Amino acid sequence: MKSLASFFIAFIFSLNIYADTVSDKEKDALIKFYHATNGANWKIKWDLSLSVSTWHGVQTENGKVIGLYLEDNNLQGELPADFFDLINLVTIDFHKNKLHGKLPAEIGKLKQLEVLSLFNNEIGGDLPGSIYKIQTLKILLLNNNKLSGTLSAEIINFHALQNLSLFDNSFEGEIPKGLEKLHNLSEMNLSYNKFKGTVSKNLALLDPLNMTMVDDNGTPFLLEINTEKETTIVTQN
Q: For the chain, where are the E strands, in sequence order?
C-alpha cells in the first residue's frame, strides 16, 4: 500500500513537471531576452537554473509562454529578434523600463498577441510594417517613447483594437482615416506628436487632449476638425 502511494505521488509530481515544461526554443528565446536586456541588473531577476514557471513575470499555459509581465523592472537594451520566437504570447507588458532601439520586424510573428504595452521607454524609429498584421491586438500602448515616421493605412487591420495610445512621440504625416472604421476602439490618445492635416470630429472626441500636436519648435496646436458632412452616392437603375 505504501509503495502504491509513493508511486501515485511520483506520478502526480511527474505530471506537474511535464505541465511546467516549455519548449527548448521558447526557453532559449527567454534566456536571450534576459541577457539582451541586462537581466543581471533587473529589480527582480530570474534564476536561470530553476524552472521557467518560477521566473518573475512569466505566464505559461499548456507548456507555452503566453504572457510576460515585467513592468518597472529595470529592463535595459533592445528587444532581440529572437524574442519573437515566443509566438504564443498574448500579453507583453514592459512599460516603465529603459528599452531602446527599434521594434524588430519579427514582431509580426506574434499572431495571437492581444496586449502590447511598451509605454514609458526609449523605443525609437518607425513602426515596422509587420505590426499591422497582428489582427488580434486589443490594447496597443506605445506612448512616451521616441517613435517617429507615419502611421500606415494598414492600421485598418486592427479590427479588435480597443485602446490605442501613441501620446508623446514624434509621429508625423496625416492620421489615417481608417481609424474611424475600427468600431471597437473606445480609448485613444494621439496628442503631442507632429501629425498634420485634418481629423474628424469623432476621432477628436476619442482623444482626451483633443488632438493637441506640437510643431517643430515644440509649440502646441490643435489639429483642424474636418466639418464636411459625409456624402452618400446614390445610383439609380
A: 58-61, 64-69, 76-77, 91-93, 98-101, 115-117, 122-125, 139-141, 146-149, 163-165, 170-174, 187-189, 194-196, 198-200, 212-214, 220-222, 224-226
**How open is the CA angle 22-119-157, to the nearest 5 degrees?**
75
Burial class (CB in 10 A: 0-12, 13-18, 19+), 113: buried
108 within 8 A of 136, measured Cβ to Cβ: no
Residue count of the chain: 237
Whole-prediction pTM: 0.87
Per-residue pLDDT tens over the stretch 14-30: 444 444 589 999 999 99
C-alpha cell of residue 176? 489615417
